[in-house]
Amino acid sequence: MNQESHQQSTGKQLPKLQLTDFVSVFWRSSFEQASWNYERMQNLGFAYIMSPAIKRLYPDKQERIAAMKRHLLFFNTSPIMQSLVTGVVLNLEEQRADGQPVSAEDISAVKTAMMGPLGGIGDPVWLGTIRPVLSALAASVVLSGFGIYGPILFFAGWNLLRLGFRYSAQKFGYQRGTDIINLFGSGILKVVTRASAVFGMFMMGTFIAKWVRIDFNLGRISAFPHFVWLDRGISALAAMLLTIICIWLIRKRLSPIWAIIILFILGVLGYAGGILS
Amino acid sequence: MALSAWILTLIVAFFVGCDGILDEWQLFQPLVACTLIGIATGNMSAGILLGATLQMITIGWMNVGAAVAPDVSLPAVISALLVCGPAALSMKHGIAVAIPFAVVGQILNVFIRKRMGWLIHRADRAADDGDLRRMNRIHLVSLGIQGMRVMIPTLLVMLISPRYIHQLASAVPNVVTTGIDISVGMVAAVGFAIIINMMADKALWWWLIGGFVLAVVTGLNIFVLTIIGLVLTAVYIWFSNRHPDSSHDSGDVDELDDFDRDLDDL
Question: Of A215, A268, A207, which Cα lies nearest the Cα of A240?
Fold first, then answer.
């Protein structure tokens, strides 16, 4: 009798996460970086995302305060990969609210352990491969004369991928909990990173051939009219050479803005001097 | 420009500014932002074309970790406004205008990111009181501030007389604008260079060269090349995953260590 009433009271005090909380956390995750700051980076963003769960799991004021504070600690990762962290943390918070032996330090430690590797994967995959490839394809759609379909392809394609990934990552993390950490050692992430890097580099090669152009005024050089067939190869090689020079300049820590300004100046001088047209 | 076009432009500028910090929806990428400004000002096709051109310039600008890249959202909105709006600048002028605004936007962004500490401390106090709603509100207020970061400069540019802007633009000598127009093809190299620099290791260079040579020699359409790229990647991953189980395993590990060492050296 006594035990039963205890169970009843704990059942009331310790509610489970509902589907609405899960969806609300998912929706909020698209606004993570709003309060990005140099002090603790995405800390408030993470707390903002977690807040429906905190509200549900910790009706008790002291516990709620503690939960808010632990999610306001330093946090920074690649934004889209953060959904995986959120999923695992939702799982842990639910266990903790349920009275399982999960300490506040455990939760913070899991966040810290995940944010580094995920940041290292997320930025090259999403910002280094998917976004440039999608946007360059979309720009090609525009220049092929299909106008509005370019921006639509880019916007819809990106957001379908992003939201689909965020939702499934959050769900996966929530279902598996800390088992996710095993994934980090399993090599799957390495394969994904490798595949994206390989594909990204292949596409960069094609983009350099298609998009980078140095418009030499070849007509000025009298030998060229006889070797028109050389033209395509030579301008392609020049494009590759220019890209390699830019990589070198960037490794020398030249800011991209300065690189662009230098190229603008070269363009103006080249046009004035009749080398470019 | 009609009042409704003014208001629409400012609303677009606000949302683009918000997404500029979020880096989620990609409304702030020129391809989308310039199109939206084009729609707001009633000159969509110019907006789309400008967006596609600016996109190739800003393609590699990304905020990785805590580093802040040149801003994309502010230049996209301002040049689209100047090209599609009543100032009716030419595309070349729009591109030239984008670069200084990328720097202005970056400075504003860093400034706000530094000052944001003040709001974060208010969020700490909300946490002391256990007040979730106040904490959430602080997060959204900072989003609004980032929206204002693009909206207010846009408003200021809108207040300048279009005729004056047009006069200024036509005062720039033709050599300069045509020279800048010519160099757009070269500037695309900078964006690709940033991306390649981020990912490059020894084995990947062969993929870069492979894609490049295939594109130059066959002259195939970019969409066909994308499909070829996807197929080649799948084949590569399939093969490289079949081997590690056999005796090649140790070889693979050595190779990876080499990459790591190379990356450390850089």
Answer: A207
Residues B164 and B211 in one domain: no
Closest alpha carbon within chain B to A32: B22
B97 with B27, same domain: the answer is yes
What secondary structure letter does DSSP report for B105? H
Scan residues 164-183 of A and list those with Cβ closer than 8 Å to B.
none
pLDDT tens sequence across A170-229: 999 999 998 888 887 778 888 889 999 999 999 999 999 999 988 777 665 555 555 555
A160 touches chain B (CB under 8 A): no
Query: Are the CB atoms for B164 and B87 separated by under 8 Å?
Result: no
- Range(s) of the domain holding residue B77: 3-182
B189 within domain boundaries = no
With an 8 Å Cβ cutoff, are A47 and B123 in contact?
yes
What ipTM was predicted for this assembly? Answer: 0.89
Q: Where does chain A have alpha helices with state H?
A: 2-13, 19-28, 43-57, 61-71, 82-97, 104-122, 131-141, 149-176, 180-186, 188-211, 228-251, 256-272
Single pTM value for the model? 0.89
Is residue B130 helix, strand or coil?
Answer: coil
Q: Do A33 and B21 touch (CB under 8 A)?
A: yes
What length is written for chain A?
277
Number of domains in chain B: 2
Question: A224-275, pLDDT tens digit by residue?
Answer: 555 555 667 788 899 999 999 999 999 998 988 999 999 999 999 999 988 8
Please state the domain extents for chain A: 2-196, 213-272
Q: How far is A95 from chain B (nearest CA, A)?
A: 21
